[in-house]
Amino acid sequence: MFNIIRASLFKLFKDWTFRITMIVGLGLVALLIGINVGISNIHGEGMFLSGSSPSSNFGLTVPINLVVFTVSEFTFGTIRNKIIAGHSKFKIYTCLFLTGLVFTFTLMITFLGLLVGISSAIGGFHGDMDLTGRFVGCYIAYFFATYIFITSLSVFFGTLMRNIGGSISIAVVTLVVLGMIPLIITLATAKDSSFNPATIQMWINPLYMIGFYSNSASLLGFLNKLGVPTAEIYYQTTQMIIAGILTPIYWAGIFFAGGAFLFTHRDIK
User: What is the tally of structural domains in the chain?
Assistant: First the structure.
């Protein structure tokens, strides 16, 4: 299995899509830092939240790259050759998923490291949000759980549809919708004094926690004007922590199990 993963990673990082993505990522880092320096509002914590958004920003490059790679494995006959070589379909699917995980976190950690590191060096880490160590730790856990789900989702649609255009469209639209729902609901209930982000949404929406916080980071002032108690928003209850980690993980498990089942029961030509 290790040899399959190593060979897949070599192809994935060598692909032209990855090279374009890295150029876009570097350009985006420079653009975001330049904009925030221009408006005198640059600090690491804001970049940390907004830069990790899976439904906007650089996060959308993850499903695009994974889908292109997964579909190309079928297009160029790589999957078929692995089966002929004696590898089981479940093993091949698992390798696609594990390869995707390594790629996903290499891409996102590199991007966030540059973005947050440079921003913190210029304006310090803490800004108007003044995030606590508890929140940062929880958010990092949400980040890893969420991108495990995104990897599973991307591999699922790539192997199911085996079409780059259709797979990317469905994956991206799904992530954008799931990522925006939390903020939309928050804005709609902003004047409700009983506002509490710990709702049933966080148990059914795998992008609820990271989607809400990554998008609210750029709308903090607007939320304040609407009367949303932003100081309380960043406090993490035990329920929120458990839901924020478990919900993306169980959805990742569902897509992995479903994808592996469908993949192992289909003919590969």
Answer: 1
Which tokens go with 86?
């004696």
Rounded distance between C-alpha atoms, residue 189 and residue 182, angstroms? 11
Residue 18 has pLDDT above 70, yes or no: yes
Give residue 189's domain range.
2-264
The pLDDT of 112-121, averaged and rounded, is: 88
> Cα separation of 243 and 210, whole Å?
11
Is-contact 7 98, C-beta < 8 A? Answer: no
Most confidently modeled of 80-84, 87-91, 105-109, 256-260?
256-260
Q: What is the per-residue pLDDT for 29?
A: 87
- Residue 218 is classified by DSSP as G
Structural domain includes residue 139 = yes
What is the SS3 assignment for 266?
coil
Query: Virtual CA dihedral for 22, 109, 124, 50, nearest 10 degrees?
Result: 80
Q: Which residue has the tokens 């990554």?
A: 214
